[in-house]
From TrEMBL:
Domain named HAT C-terminal dimerisation: residues: 190-255
SUPFAM superfamilies: Ribonuclease H-like
Protein's recorded name: HAT C-terminal dimerisation domain-containing protein
PANTHER family with a match to the protein in the record: DNA REPLICATION-RELATED ELEMENT FACTOR, ISOFORM A (PTHR46169), INNER CENTROMERE PROTEIN A-LIKE ISOFORM X1-RELATED (PTHR46169:SF15)
GO BP of this protein: regulation of transcription by RNA polymerase II
Organism annotation: Euphydryas editha
GO MF: protein dimerization activity
Pfam families registered for this protein in UniProt: Dimer_Tnp_hAT
Length: 260
């Protein structure tokens, strides 16, 4: 709204004069223009996190880091009026204070790690390592143990008592030969392979990437399906209720089910 007022500066001043009201001074218009510059990154954050056609949970930590950096860079690149400069500094201080422990959110940290666009964007190495260990634990919990794999193999082996199969000797030898390794070690290998894979562009869809790589990371793919759908805000839900309110209201309460 503030930007729109700046765009309509001359018509607004003319209207105020015609109404016999005090007009906005050039000093105040300058403040409004500079405030639009300072608030523009905040508008971009609001627009990004309010989306409903893409995942927003993995955006929370990266976009907060980017917002702080953008506001700090504005101070380096511009000389604002004292009032606007105070606004910029207050924004940075309040964001840092309010989201001081944002990295400690397991939900958003897991989303960020499982998003192939942002897995390296942690600004705290300790948080990155802790999140990686947590994902390894989730993957290990999905892997069967060695005993379970042996039992599964044995259940598939069927040797008829009176007939001889050409695979009988193979199955007998394979009963005692199983790859060494624990669920934890296999989880470490899978997570590390994912971590060493290349980063995809920010505009790419992470779920399309996971669908094309599910054969390479089968267990991580299952975890990504469960963890990556976290929402950053309630805006999409509120849009659903608003749309329902436009369809079903007090003046249209007799609508049938097919109309909803």
């Amino acid at each position: 709204m503030l930007r729109r007022c700046v765009e309509l500066m001359e018509p607004l001043n003319s209207a105020l004069i015609n109404l016999g009201m005090e007009t906005v001074t050039s000093y105040e218009w300058t403040i409004c223009k500079e405030m639009c510059v300072v608030l523009q990154p905040c508008e971009e954050v609001t627009r990004e996190l309010s989306g409903q056609k893409y995942m927003t949970g993995s955006l929370v930590i990266p976009i907060t880091i980017g917002l702080i950096k953008a506001l700090e860079n504005l101070g380096h690149q511009n000389i604002f009026m004292p009032l606007v400069e105070r606004l910029r500094q207050d924004l940075i201080g309040n964001i840092k204070r309010r989201f001081l422990n944002l990295n400690q959110s397991k939900t958003f940290a897991n989303c960020m790690f499982l998003d192939p666009r942002f897995k390296f964007y942690f600004d705290d190495a300790h948080v990155a390592d802790e999140t990686k260990r947590r994902i390894i634990g989730l993957v290990a919990a999905q892997h069967p143990s060695s005993d379970e794999r042996v039992e599964a193999f044995q259940s598939m082996v069927h040797t008829p008592s009176q007939t001889q199969s050409i695979w009988q000797d193979f199955e007998k030898k394979m009963l005692g030969i199983q790859p060494e390794g624990t669920p934890q070690s296999r989880a470490i290998v899978e997570v590390q392979r994912y971590y060493d894979d290349k980063v995809i562009p920010r505009t790419d869809c992470p779920m399309k990437w996971w669908r094309s790589h599910q054969a390479a990371y089968p267990t991580l793919y299952k975890i990504a399906l469960k963890k990556l759908n976290a929402m950053s805000s309630s805006v999409p839900c509120e849009r659903v209720f608003s749309a329902a309110g436009n369809i079903m209201n007090e003046r249209r309460i007799r609508l049938g089910i097919r109309k909803l």
